[in-house]
Each structure stands twice: as C-alpha cells, then as structure tokens.
C-alpha cells in the first residue's frame, strides 16, 4: 500500500536558453506513515519533487498519485508566515475552525507558548521556523512536506529543532517527505533515505534506516548510517 | 510632537512665507492671508460659492473613481499577462507621454465643451498612471506567499483577502492619494478652458477681473478639502500597516 507514488515523473522547465530538463524518470513509492528523506546536492531538483507532491507543480512526464486526497502540511525553507498577521492568526488562516482552539497548544509544542499575539517580524529566524512547523502540524496533515526546514538556521538552533521535530513526529506520525542536503538530518528524521543526483536528476540509490524511533544524534548506530550514506553519495558522484 | 507639533509648525511656516511674499510684492499684487480670509468670509455666505466648490469636488471624485475602476483591472491584467502587457505597451507609452493639455483640448474639440468631454479627458489622463502603478504592484507580489497559500489549499477568497490584498494595500493607497491630487489639478485646469462652473471657472473669472483674492480664496478652500480627503487616505494607509510598526507601537 502506498500513500504517495511518483510514476516515471519528469519535469522540464522552459528557460531563455530553451528547455531545461530538471527531473527524469523518477519512480518512488512512499508508504502510509513512512518518513522519506530526499538527499542531494543543491540544485538537484529536490524541492521540485516536493512541489510536485504538494500539487504546486505538474509533471511534464509521468504522474503523481495519492492514495487519499492529500491534506498537505508544508514547512518551507523560509517560514513564509504572513507578516501582517499575528502568529495565532497565521495558524488560524490555514486551519479549519474546529482546530482553532488547539492553536495555543500547537504553539506550546514547538516552544512558542504565549507568543500567539506576536507578529512574525518580532521573532528570530528559528522561532519563525518553529511557528511554521506548528502551522503545518496543526492541520493534522496526512502528508507532511519539509523543504530543508533548518537550512537557513545556525547549526546550534538547527540541531535543537531537529531533535524537537523528531519528538513531534513520534507523537504525531504522518507520511513525510523531507528534503535535505544534511546526511545526519536525513538519518535522524527518516525511515528511508533516497539519494538524488545526476543531470537531469534521477534516483541514484537508497538506504533503509533501521533504528528505533527515538534517536540520539550522537548514537554510534546513527553515526554509522551517516557514514554509510556519505559513502553512497560519494559512489553516486 | 511628531504627530501634531511639527505639522502645525509646518503650517505656520506656510502662513509666514505667504505673509513675507505679500510684503515683498505688495498687497495689491499678492494679498496676504488676512485679506484673503476676509474675502473668503464674504464668499462663503453665498450659495454660488458652495455650488462651484461642490461641482468641482464632484468632478474630481467622478474622474478619480472612474480612473481607479478602469485602471485597477487593467493594471492587474498587465501585471499577470506578459502577452497583454507587450500588446498594451505602445498604448501606455502614448498615454504616459502625450501632453495632458493636448488630451484635454482634443476632447473639448471632439466631444464639445461639456461635462462628458471633461470627465472623459481627465479619466484618460489618469488611467495610464493608475494602470502602470497597479501593474508594478502586481509584479512585485511575493510568489512564495502565493505558493504557501496554494500548498495549504486556501480558498480563493481567503487568498485574496489575507495574502494578496495586504501586499497591494500600501501601493493602492499611495496610488489613490496621487490620483486624487492629480484629478483635482486636472479638473481645475479643464474648468479654466472648457466649463462655465466650478473652481477653475471662478479662478479664470477672477483672473480676468485682476482679483487675486478670489483666486487665492478658492485655492485655499479646495486645498483644505482635498487635504482632508488625503488625510483620510493617509490614516487608512497607517492603519493598514500597523504590523510594520516596531513592538510597542509608534516611536
């Protein structure tokens, strides 16, 4: 059974220099509740895959199939909160009214207790990204898309947020696609890592993460998988 | 001080500059504020005075409303469609560069010295400016926020109300202020040439009588009325951008 399926997906963008093929022949199946990390270098079309999954983009070839209509929670690389709305209003905007009473607890879960009346401009980058995560989880998504969610943060804050996200995903299991270029993040937060590369981008290999749900970033088993993943990327290159 | 003190000082400096100019040129050439107020005091008791003010204000608002009603959808289309924008490019270039007096006088010659000609000409004068400003505002909409709205499946109404309109709001209000001011100047100009009522006509009438007090009196009243309208738009603009204020409100 699959929650999400990419079937022979290819994407070609029109550009000033002619057509530019970004993705070719992507076949990928994601099981319900599975967390898949898409790992690749910058510009390898990882975010394009996520945009296809979100329905923001249509494939030029192949198709994207959902088991049930997707209720997408999307955490972008930048928080993309509306600066003219307070945090609680930002969360209320994307969620149905029956979820509105849960907004304070959604903010508390990501460490933003009592900050609902703040405007995004009053928050640090890390706090804004937490709010973005709270927004994505509040709607009880059946498909969570994370596009390098900690890419713009300093390593200390990013590490803190990775652990927090790992905890949240254990509490609220959901089919997840995570885009990252950070092997440690991929192993910490996913059940399977898919390596992307080439020109145009194709699937180059994958690694099953056989670790318990509760993971320690300094655990020897996790570090071994990170080394293995680095080897896989190196071979793919 | 910033809210009331400095603006009041600024107003005072206008009165002082006016008085100095009167002393320099002589009261018969350029009457001072007190003389003008005396004249105005006599005029405001006459129904004809308010009739002229009323008709000018009506023309200003009609041209302003028509320019916005036509210019907003036109600018929106120009911002969204590169094909339409390319097609409309020469039209806009002509509209923006043709001397305004040429459009005004052509309208009077073609349509006649009537209300329709004045309103048509001024709407045509305002339209390219409105359309270009809206086009630029539409082009500068943040596509990342639109993607967020689509990813979270926001309804069209919610996307318009909460994602698009707040981005356009500051430009639209700025544009409304500029258009109102331009509309008023052009209406008065048009009335001088082609109407027998309104502030422009009265200014022309007093000009022929060498009565500078009349010209200044009408100018003062219309400036006060238009400033009040502009103040209302400025207030709306500030209200719409409270989120841009630092925590704790205005400094």
Structure description:
The complex is a heterodimer of chains A (237) and B (251). With 237 residues, chain A is α/β, with parallel strands linked by helices. Chain A folds into two domains: 4-71 and 141-236, Rossmann fold, CATH 3.40.50.300; 82-140. Chain A has seven helices and nine strands; from the N terminus they run βββαββαααβαβαββα. Chain A has helices spanning 46-54, 87-94, 103-109, 125-138, 155-171, 183-189, 220-236, and strands at residues 4-15, 18-30, 35-39, 61-66, 72-75, 143-147, 176-180, 192-197, 202-208. Chain A has a six-stranded mixed β-sheet with strand order 5-6-7-3-8-9, sandwiched between helices. The two termini of chain A are 32 Å apart. The mean pLDDT of chain A is 90. By secondary structure, chain B is mostly helical. Chain B has a single domain, classed as MetI-like (MetI-like fold). Chain B contains ten helices and no strands. The longest helix of chain B is centred in the C-terminal third of the chain and has 39 residues, at 156-194. Chain B is globular, with a radius of gyration of 22 Å.
Brief rundown of the structure:
The complex is a heterodimer of chains A (237) and B (251). Chain A is an alpha/beta fold and 237 residues long. Chain A has 2 domains: 4-71 and 141-236, P-loop containing nucleotide triphosphate hydrolases (Rossmann fold, 3-Layer(aba) Sandwich), CATH 3.40.50; 82-140.
Q: Work out the number of β strands of chain A.
A: 9
Task: Please state the overall shape of chain B, judged from the principal axes of the Cα atoms.
Answer: globular
Q: What is the CATH T-level topology of chain B?
A: MetI-like fold
CATH architecture of the largest domain in chain A: 3-Layer(aba) Sandwich
How far do the termini of chain B sit from each other?
A: 11 Å
Largest sheet of chain B: none
Q: What is the SS-derived class of chain B?
A: mainly alpha
Topology pattern of chain A, helix = H, strand = E: EEEHEEHHHEHEHEEH
Q: Give the beta-strand count of chain B.
A: 0
Percent strand of chain A equals 25-35%
Largest interface: A-B, 23 and 16 residues
Strand order of the largest sheet of chain A: 5-6-7-3-8-9
Q: Please, what is the oligomeric state? A: heterodimer
């Amino acid at each position: 059974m699959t929650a999400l399926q990419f079937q022979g997906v290819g994407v070609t963008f029109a550009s000033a220099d002619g057509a530019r093929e970004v993705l070719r022949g992507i076949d990928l199946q994601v099981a319900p509740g599975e967390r898949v990390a898409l790992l690749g270098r910058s510009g390898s079309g990882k975010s394009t895959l996520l945009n296809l999954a979100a329905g923001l983009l249509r494939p030029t070839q192949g198709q994207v199939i959902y088991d049930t209509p997707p209720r997408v929670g999307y955490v972008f690389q930048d928080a993309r909160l509306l600066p003219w709305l307070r945090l609680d209003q930002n969360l209320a905007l994307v969620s149905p009214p029956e979820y509105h009473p849960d907004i304070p607890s959604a903010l508390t879960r990501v460490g933003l207790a009592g900050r609902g009346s703040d405007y995004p401009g009053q928050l640090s980058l890390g706090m804004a990204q937490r709010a973005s995560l709270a927004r994505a989880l509040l709607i009880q998504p059946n498909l969570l898309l994370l596009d390098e969610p900690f890419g713009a943060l300093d390593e200390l804050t990013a590490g803190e947020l990775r652990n927090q996200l790992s905890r949240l995903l254990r509490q609220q299991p959901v089919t997840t696609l995570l885009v990252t270029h950070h092997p440690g993040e991929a192993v910490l937060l996913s059940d399977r890592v898919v390596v992307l590369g080439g020109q145009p981008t194709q699937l180059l290999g994958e690694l099953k993460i056989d670790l318990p749900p509760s993971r320690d970033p300094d655990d020897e088993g996790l570090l071994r998988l990170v080394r293995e993943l680095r080897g896989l990327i190196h071979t793919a290159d | 001080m910033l809210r009331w003190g400095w603006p009041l000082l600024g107003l005072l400096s206008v009165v002082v500059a006016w008085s100095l100019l009167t002393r320099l040129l002589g009261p018969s050439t350029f009457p001072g504020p007190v003389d003008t107020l005396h004249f105005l005091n006599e005029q405001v008791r006459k129904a004809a005075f308010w009739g002229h003010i009323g008709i000018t204000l009506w023309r200003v608002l009609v041209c302003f409303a028509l320019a916005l009603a036509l210019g907003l959808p036109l600018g929106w289309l120009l911002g969204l469609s590169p094909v339409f924008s390319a097609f409309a490019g020469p039209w806009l270039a002509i509209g923006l560069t043709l001397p305004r007096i040429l459009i005004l006088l052509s309208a009077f010659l073609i349509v006649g010295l009537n209300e329709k000609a004045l309103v048509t000409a001024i709407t045509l004068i305002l339209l390219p400016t409105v359309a270009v400003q809206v086009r630029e505002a539409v082009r500068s909409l943040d596509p990342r926020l639109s993607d967020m709205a689509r990813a979270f499946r926001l309804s069209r109404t919610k996307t318009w109300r909460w994602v698009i309109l707040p981005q356009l709001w500051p430009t639209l209000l700025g544009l409304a202020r500029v258009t109102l001011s331009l509309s008023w100047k052009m209406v008065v100009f048009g009335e001088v040439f082609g109407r027998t009522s309104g502030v422009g006509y009265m200014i022309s009438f007093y000009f022929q009588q060498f009565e500078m007090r009349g010209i200044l009196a009408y100018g003062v009243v219309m400036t006060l009325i238009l400033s009040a309208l502009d103040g209302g738009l400025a207030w709306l603009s500030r209200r719409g951008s409270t989120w841009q204020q630092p925590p704790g409100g205005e400094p």
